[in-house]
Specification:
- The complex is a heterodimer of chains A (277) and B (235).
- Chain A has 277 residues and is mainly α.
- In chain A, α8 runs antiparallel to α9.
- Chain A is flat and about 90 Å long.
- With 235 residues, chain B is mainly α.
- Chain B contains nine helices and no strands.
- In chain B, α2 runs antiparallel to α8.
- Chain B is flat, with a radius of gyration of 22 Å.
- Chain B starts with a helix and ends in a 6-residue tail after the last helix.
- The chains are: A mainly alpha (277), B mainly alpha (235).
- At the A-B interface, α1, α3, α4, α9 and α10 of A face α3, α4, α7, α8 and α9 of B.
Chain lengths: 277, 235
């Protein structure tokens, strides 16, 4: 069979990339990371203590479950609380709007730790009154106080996210709905809300990450979440490894959530993507 | 009610002076962290914006770690880890006992977290500067460093300011965490006052209000800074 003559192509030699300052710095920095990672692994292996592991590993996993409960419960409760606040902020009634604004401003402007103290220790001060209305059993538990504070806190942030997302939906969408003679409720439910949800998705994911990180604060009011168990283990053993274990677990949680959120976003915005051609 | 407010008076009976000292420490800590965090954040943003893949990867590892860890955990790792590391290092030479200052540990931990988030803000701002600006700099014969300092940085500040002001407010609130490592900031002074007076609700509410006032003052400062940064935009 005849073959076509392939023309000989002369290409210049591929030049080795020069060792620029940026490249040297990059390798040096990466070397630091690799050395730290190796050092930590080495520490885990050489300082491995079977008794210590058997005693604290199950406790820390239990703490992890408590952390997950804190995050899931407060984010969901916060969401239910955030919706009325979102609508209150857009309300034409100035009193309702003002109250919602004050609520959001207070919870976004003060440290979560201070809010947690305010609820946990403050509830103890009003014990008699709370017993009278039959709510003392709730505020007696540090875990419930943490959930209560976190839900109020995240609701304020979520309300801001939802409001921003609703405002970001173009006005023409609502006007289009009116032109079609749809009721306000229908316009919100079928036109504005679905679009706002896509806009709110990413900030909402960030808010959950903030909540995962913020939940560590519960350990300060004697809740034995992951951070609480870690602090307990450290105070008993003075073994610094436990903090590194906790760090790995927190990083893992945040990374998993981030990956899952990327997937959700791709799935939910697939109708907005054009085919690559 | 009057009794409660008399607890806030200055002097030996009231807690006003203690709380004022706490506020002063909180403000000092936040102000000391800011330049350190900004500089580190800018350097990391430049690394992330670099053409060199290995440098970008190293910088991304940094942000993944310090944005993903709870601030409280970062603080403990810096405080206790720094203590262990330092005493081992010094133990190689002498056997004096060293103690890491809570203020420095707080500053480093908050600065690490701040820089990780700030680098994202700076990176966004860097990408918002058109390439023509760099090209103009090189057409004028400026060195890369001079282009950065004279052309890019002034625009960078304007673009990054809104994001950075948010981070400043977050930083101000995060300083409350140092009360857990027994540094006498506003919240810890409040804890002490509560321990003595048994008036938790009142004192923690006051502490919250002080944080609100601090952020209100910051907002005024930020407004001024924004006006200054955007004065070139006024037509």
């Amino acid at each position: 069979m005849a073959t076509l003559d392939t023309p000989t192509v002369v290409r210049p030699d591929v030049r080795a990339r020069p060792w620029t300052v940026a490249r040297i710095a990059g390798w040096a920095w990466m070397a630091v990371w690799i050395a730290s990672a190796t050092g930590i692994c080495w520490m885990f292996v050489t300082d491995f203590d079977g008794d210590f592991f058997a005693r604290y590993a199950p406790r820390m996993l239990g703490g992890l479950v408590v952390t997950l409960q804190l995050v899931v419960l407060s984010v969901i409760l916060g969401m239910f609380l955030a919706l009325p606040v979102t609508f209150a902020r857009g309300s034409p009634n100035r009193l309702i709007g003002g109250l919602a604004f004050a609520y959001v401003y207070f919870f976004r402007g003060t440290p979560l730790l201070a809010q947690t103290f305010l609820v946990y220790y403050g509830a103890g001060q009003f014990r008699e009154q709370l017993e009278m209305v039959g709510l003392w059993w709730f505020f007696r538990e540090a875990f419930n106080c943490a959930i209560f504070t976190f839900a109020l806190n995240t609701a304020a942030y979520q309300a801001e996210i939802f409001r921003g997302a609703i405002d970001a939906v173009p006005r023409g969408q609502t006007e289009g709905g009116h032109a079609l003679g749809l009721s306000r409720m229908t316009i919100f439910r079928y036109i504005v809300a679905p679009q706002a949800m896509i806009i709110a998705l990413r900030p909402f994911g960030n808010e959950i990450i903030l909540m995962i990180k913020g939940s560590a604060i519960a350990s300060v009011i004697t809740v034995f979440d992951l951070m609480g168990e870690t602090r307990l283990a450290f105070s008993r053993s003075f073994d610094f490894q436990v903090y590194l274990w906790a760090a790995l677990l927190y990083l893992l949680m945040v990374e998993i959530l981030r990956r899952v959120w990327d997937r959700i976003e791709i799935r939910l915005t697939r109708h907005l993507k054009r085919d690559q051609d | 009610m009057g009794e409660l407010f008399s607890l806030l008076s200055y002097g030996p009976d009231g807690w006003g002076d203690e709380i004022a000292q706490g506020v002063w420490l909180t403000v000092r800590l936040a102000l000391a962290t800011l330049p350190f965090g900004l500089l580190l954040g800018l350097l990391i943003a430049l690394a992330k914006n670099s053409d060199e893949p290995i440098l970008r990867a190293a910088a991304n590892i940094y942000t993944t770690i310090f944005r993903g860890l709870p601030e409280l955990l970062t603080l403990f790792i810096v405080y206790f880890g720094g203590q262990i590391l330092l005493s081992r290092l010094i133990g190689l030479f002498t056997d004096t006992y060293v103690e890491v200052s809570g203020f420095v540990a707080g500053m480093i931990a908050l600065g690490l977290v701040f820089s990780a988030f700030a680098s994202e803000v700076f990176l966004g701002a860097l990408r918002g500067i058109p390439p023509g600006q760099y090209e103009a700099g090189s057409a004028l014969g400026l060195t890369r460093l001079k282009t950065l300092r004279l052309i890019i940085l002034p625009q960078l500040i304007r673009l990054a300011l809104p994001g950075l002001s948010n981070l400043w407010l977050v930083l101000l609130k995060d300083t409350a965490l140092v009360s857990v490592i027994a540094l006498d900031d506003l919240l810890r002074k409040t804890n002490i006052a509560v321990g003595v007076t048994k008036e938790p609700f009142f004192f923690y509410l006051i502490a919250c209000l002080i944080y609100l006032v601090l952020s209100l003052i910051s907002s005024i400062g930020i407004g001024r800074a924004r006006a200054w940064a955007e004065k070139s935009e006024v037509r």
